[in-house]
Design goal:
Layout: E1 6-7, E2 18-19, H1 26-34, H2 39-45, H3 51-62
Antiparallel strand pairs: 1-2
């Protein structure tokens, strides 16, 4: 499956999934969501992300 906002690159964080154009690991945002953070709160702290990118991370986790 091809993702618009997520990439894996062996040269970035050892190949862990990150949001394209950042070094923000997908697992970090998923951990915040699991801890009860809202998408809006995450976006305030990570303005380089978008709601669509976070929603894609949720779908990525389910794969």
């Amino acid at each position: 499956m091809k993702y618009k906002y997520i990439e894996r690159n062996p040269n970035i964080l050892g190949g862990k999934p990150v949001f394209k154009g950042t070094r923000i690991p997908v697992y970090l945002i998923l951990d915040f969501l699991s801890a009860g953070e809202t998408i809006d709160n995450i976006l305030e702290n990570y303005p380089q992300l978008s709601k669509e990118a976070i929603l894609e991370a949720i779908r990525y986790k389910e794969v």
